[in-house]
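Figure 3 (text version): structure tokens given as input.
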């Protein structure tokens, strides 16, 4: 009798290997995120508390909470902003706990006011050392608690400029305060922060598991009674649906080219500053006949429906034109934000408003496109279709995967979703016949010191974004933070390019050490059988990419040393075929 072979160890199984690789990717992203942003977070907390030890405690607690939700937070447009917000909230909680003591101290009316301590003096000195723009942005955002969009309106500059000032100001402030604080600012190792978060998650799961077990027991009792009462045999089991890769291949449709709208189309002549638009209802937004005027914030680029709330705002410059109804006249697609009060930024009420111009010149909203609260990094128009890169943010699609595009069209009565997934499928998992082709850039891609591969390089990614490819493995990295966009309008007059952050390591070695020196920010163009690589953003091989966002003429890319340390932003300009600093 033959003896069956011993079971394969779980650690060597493919699913476990994939899960381990994904955990390694998550840990790598978080550690890089932590190393790049921790000092700035301590600086912000120090600015709120004036106490170095409290600032360190607040920062470590905020990052512990970030790791507990890293799968969700890493997909945010701006994860550092989430951590800073948590830090501010934690500081406020401490303030609330000290209110009684503070009130008591005020009533004591001390005869002598103590001199400012060294912590306070160091903070004031550091703030004064910053350039005025950076200082004002930090004070408005972190001390006055204005969102980035409000700071941009207050200072009369684009939001991207504010983000750059905040990043550089925090970096400089952290360095200046570090000279006062000595050492590394009380930084603990990122793996210790992750362990702390994992312990909390396990404790929470233990409590949930106990509650779930009790519920399942009750459900089982009722289910057993139902089965005894009904002996009807169950229907035959359905065959599972085939995976996308197993479906018969067919030539994928080409997306429509960018819609060309005549320069003399009437809607192009609309002056949105002063426009009167009949706006359809939306939750929490004003509706009806609204008059838009320049926002009262000095230097603000927005126009607004009025000074009261709720209030609808949009940027009159950021407008997409498309003939959605097919009547030969274009509609305007406006990126709007609905503000419920002066404490909100409008991000949670973000949506696209499609406006048509009637024959008599009046403006009417046809309806809303996209999902409320989503993030819209890219919007462009094809043949009677509005194409969107629509990422989950304060709301939005739950099925989003990197590379997906959503479409909206007009059915004669309303704006409705249009399926454009065949032309723009997600990158992972790879769909049969729709691969990424890296062959043209194989000799430029960093891969942990491995030589350039010979022959075609067309990796096939699984649902976790990992692809085995001969002697190496590739991994799709959302970025930390994932500022995107993944569909970038580098050339405004053509359809977008696909921008992906690809990590590469030796086969079976997808760990933090390899991933930190194998980052490649790659631009792809659309082909009939997928996407082919046309350029690599020439970031230094020894630096890790943390973020990128679209700027006039190219991409602003944030990098930091692979071993940890201060990061910085570099503008890479696009000439149509390649990038240069």
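Below: residues designed for each position.
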């Amino acid at each position: 009798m033959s003896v069956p072979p011993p079971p394969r160890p779980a650690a060597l199984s493919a699913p476990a290997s994939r899960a381990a690789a994904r955990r390694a990717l998550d840990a790598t992203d978080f550690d890089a995120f932590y190393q790049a942003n921790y000092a700035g977070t301590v600086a912000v907390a120090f600015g709120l508390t004036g106490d170095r030890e409290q600032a360190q405690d607040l920062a470590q607690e905020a990052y512990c909470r970030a790791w507990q939700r890293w799968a969700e937070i890493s997909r945010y447009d701006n994860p550092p902003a989430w951590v800073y917000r948590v830090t501010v909230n934690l500081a406020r909680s401490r303030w609330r706990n000290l209110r009684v003591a503070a009130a008591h101290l005020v009533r004591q009316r001390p005869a002598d006011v103590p001199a400012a301590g060294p912590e306070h003096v160091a903070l004031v000195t550091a703030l004064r050392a910053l350039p005025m723009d950076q200082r004002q942005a930090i004070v408005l955002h972190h001390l006055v608690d204005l969102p980035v969009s409000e700071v941009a309106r207050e200072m009369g500059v684009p939001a991207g400029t504010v983000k750059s000032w905040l990043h550089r100001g925090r970096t400089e402030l952290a360095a200046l305060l570090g000279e006062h604080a000595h050492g590394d600012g009380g930084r603990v190792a990122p793996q210790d922060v992750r362990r702390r978060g994992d312990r909390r998650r396990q404790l929470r799961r233990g409590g949930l598991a106990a509650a779930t077990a009790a519920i399942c027991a009750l459900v089982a009792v009722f289910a057993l009674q139902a089965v005894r009462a009904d002996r009807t045999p169950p229907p035959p089991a359905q065959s599972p649906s085939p995976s996308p890769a197993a479906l018969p291949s067919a030539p994928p449709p080409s997306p429509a080219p960018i819609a060309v709208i005549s320069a003399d189309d009437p809607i192009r002549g609309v002056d949105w500053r002063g426009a009167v638009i009949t706006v359809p209802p939306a939750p929490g937004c004003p509706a009806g006949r609204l008059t838009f005027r320049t926002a009262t914030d000095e230097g603000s680029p927005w126009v607004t429906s009025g000074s009261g709330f709720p209030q609808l705002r949009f940027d009159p410059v950021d407008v997409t034109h498309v003939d959605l109804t097919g009547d030969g006249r274009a509609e305007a697609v406006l990126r709007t934000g609905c503000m419920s009060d002066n404490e909100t930024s409008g991000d949670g009420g973000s949506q696209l408003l499609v406006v048509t111009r009637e024959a008599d010149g009046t403006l009417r909203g046809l309806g809303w496109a996209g999902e409320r609260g989503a993030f819209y990094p890219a919007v462009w128009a094809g043949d009677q279709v509005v194409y969107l890169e629509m990422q989950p943010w304060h709301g939005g699609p739950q099925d989003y995967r990197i590379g997906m595009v959503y479409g909206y069209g007009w059915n004669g009565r309303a704006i409705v979703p249009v399926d454009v997934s065949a032309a723009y499928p997600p990158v992972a998992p790879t769909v049969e016949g729709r691969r990424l082709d890296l062959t043209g850039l194989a000799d430029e891609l960093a891969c942990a010191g491995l030589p350039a591969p010979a022959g075609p390089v067309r990796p096939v990614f699984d649902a976790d974004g990992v692809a085995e490819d001969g002697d190496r493995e590739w991994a799709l990295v959302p970025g930390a933070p994932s500022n995107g966009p993944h569909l970038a309008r580098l050339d405004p007059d053509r359809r977008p390019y696909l921008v992906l952050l690809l990590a590469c390591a030796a086969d079976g070695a997808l760990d933090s050490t390899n991933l930190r020196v194998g980052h490649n920010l790659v631009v792809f163009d659309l082909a009939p059988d997928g996407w082919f690589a046309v350029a690599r953003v020439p970031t230094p091989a020894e630096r890790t990419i943390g973020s990128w966002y679209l700027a006039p003429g190219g991409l602003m890319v944030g990098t930091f040393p692979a071993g940890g340390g201060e990061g910085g932003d570099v503008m890479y300009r696009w000439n149509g075929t390649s990038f240069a600093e």
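The longest strand covers residues 311-322.
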